[in-house]
Write a structure and sequence with these properties.
This protein is α/β, with parallel strands linked by helices and 394 residues long. It has three domains: 137 residues, 3-Layer(bba) Sandwich (Glucose Oxidase, domain 1), CATH 3.50.30; 181 residues, no CATH class; 47 residues, no CATH class. The chain contains 19 helices and 15 strands. An eight-stranded mixed beta sheet has the order 7-6-5-1-2-3-4-8. The protein has a seven-stranded parallel beta sheet with strand order 13-12-11-10-9-14-15. Strand 2, helix 3 and strand 3 form a beta-alpha-beta unit. Helix 18 packs across helix 19. It is globular.
Length: 394
């Protein structure tokens, strides 16, 4: 159980956890308003891993979901992460909770019920490890239909964005030199800060172009690195990070509207927009590929089968799949790079080797005629220093 969860427990006779309600139908908007100790009230079918990680990071003490957190369409990963973090998840309470509960109201969660004071305002199912495991087994049966839908969406996306994916049409110009260099793309995926720490030696040796994506840009800045390029929503990135970057690329909708661009302009930072339907990670990879990167190393970018399915039927999934096909063998996972780049010989072993060589040289000099002369000279010098010190200090 997280510390914030323990602090959220009531101090009177009433059981359960209490916290301030933060209510929003759109999970993305709600995540920006959360503070430690809050209870998130959302309407999110099939909570994905990224949303769950953001809720855990915000240190909420509970989550109330108007919709099913696992609908059975596919095995999504979010509910399991919330329960593992010790955050109560009350599921399927109905959309009326969004009207009944006002933002800022103090809520109490207990055994699948949502209380305002002593009044029950919503009822649902409190998920646990066993219930989630059972739901996931059932959800796996829906993977075939999900894969078929994914294939159809991929074909449709390729028809719509063929020029971008195949020929790089629409990729903005950047002034940071990328051609014939390696690129490190850092996104805000699971354990990305830990992976970045393991790549410090790689960064020092190869000095790749550093591209920060959304929260990954803040991670780069906090780790003491200066992002060369930032790709993402400026509203979700710290001011100091934005100002430290050489260039900022703001994802835009097809009609040209770029959320967060006003903040960039208010800060007096130059930026270019990238109109496309892909997510920020995909756009960062396309920027690196289109400008001639020889190798693209990714940190916090997850694109396995479970991650594809975890995103459900969202439009960015075909973009993610096709972008990785586009980069091909240029794309390398950061964990693999860290493993291969790790020193095979420890520093301690190197020090012992140097000491052994020095001892061997001294021994060789000592047993030779010439070496004995140097040894005698060193001994005479040492005795002179000792005599001088005795005279100095009486």
């Amino acid at each position: 159980m997280k510390l914030s969860g323990l602090l959220g427990r009531t101090h009177d006779e009433l059981p359960g956890v209490t916290g301030v309600a933060r209510v929003d139908r759109r999970s993305g908007d709600l995540l920006r308003r959360l503070s430690p100790g809050d209870i998130a009230v959302i309407d999110h079918v099939d909570i994905d891993r990224r949303t769950a990680e953001a809720l855990v990071h915000a240190e909420v003490v509970g989550v109330v979901n108007a919709s099913p957190s696992i609908s059975g369409r596919f095995p999504n990963l979010g509910p399991e992460l919330l329960v593992e973090a010790g955050i109560p998840l009350i599921d399927g309470v109905g959309t009326s909770v969004l009207r009944e509960v006002k933002d800022g109201t103090e809520l109490r969660l207990h055994e699948g019920m949502v209380f305002v004071g002593k009044r029950v305002v919503a009822r649902g199912v409190e998920q646990n490890a066993e219930s989630i495991a059972d739901s996931m087994i059932e959800a796996k049966a829906g993977m075939a239909a999900q894969l078929e839908a994914f294939s159809a969406n991929t074909i449709e996306f390729l028809r719509r964005e063929r020029a971008l994916i195949l020929d790089g049409v629409g990729v903005p110009e950047v002034y940071v030199p990328i051609r014939d260099r390696q690129v490190l793309v850092v996104a805000g995926g699971p354990r990305h800060a830990e992976e970045l720490r393991k790549l410090r030696k790689y960064i020092r040796e190869y000095r790749p172009v550093l591209i920060g994506v959304d929260a990954g840009a803040d991670t780069l800045h906090d780790a003491g690195f200066k992002p060369d390029i930032i790709v993402g929503d400026p509203d979700a990135i710290g001011t100091a990070t934005l100002k430290s970057a050489s260039e900022v690329v703001v994802p835009a909708q097809i009609d040209g509207h770029a959320p967060g661009l006003e903040r960039i302009q208010d800060l007096g930072i130059g930026a270019v927009t990238f109109p496309a339907t892909g997510n920020s990670e995909d756009l960062a990879l396309l920027v690196a590929e289109a400008h001639g990167a020889t190798l693209v190393v990714t940190v916090g970018v997850q694109a396995g089968l479970r991650e594809f399915l975890d995103r459900g039927n969202c439009g960015s999934t075909p973009s993610t799949f096709l972008t990785r096909l586009k980069l091909g063998n240029k794309l390398v996972d950061g964990h693999a790079v860290a493993t291969l780049h790790r020193n095979r010989v420890s520093s301690g072993s190197i020090v012992l080797l140097v000491l052994a060589v020095v001892v061997a040289m001294v021994a060789a000099l000592a047993v030779s005629g010439i070496g004995q002369v140097y040894v005698d000279l060193a001994a005479d010098a040492f005795r002179s220093v000792v005599d001088w010190l005795k005279g100095l200090f009486g």
